[in-house]
Amino acid sequence: MVINNIMELTQLAQQGLAGISLALIGLSALVLNQLFKLMGNHINHNTEAWNKNTEALAKLSEKIDEDIKAQKETAEALRCLKL
Fold this sequence. Notes:
This protein has 83 residues and is mostly helical. Helix content is 98%, strand content 0%. The model has no long low-confidence stretch (mean pLDDT 93).
């Protein structure tokens, strides 16, 4: 009788541990899923920001080139006036 009770308790404990293990595996899967979603969102956001910054730098470079050209033209005009 006592041996049967001990065996039943052992079996219940093993089943409980198996259930807890499965629950932890499931919880880990959910956490990893959320982590990968979060990482994906950050990557998308950073990619969009990178693209916007690249466009802004291209526009700034064009503006600088235009300003340099205008300064050269002004310098040339001043040289012509001095002659």
